[in-house]
Amino acid sequence: MAGKCPKCERRVEEARLEHMNISDGTLRIRAFSASCPYCSTTMGVIVDPRVNDENVGEVLSILKRNRL
User: What is the pTM for the complete model shown?
Assistant: First the structure.
């Protein structure tokens, strides 16, 4: 499925996928960004769906601290 870059308006059939981290200041999660192959504008970010032991530990730690 092709889309259109919001900046250069070229038709994008294949985006450039890059690894990145996203964070709320407490928890850091691995993610991917999809960039336009022509102008490098970021067109979207998605969380990496693969389970990661590091993230599971962080999530459990936060949940334990925030118990009522």
Answer: 0.64
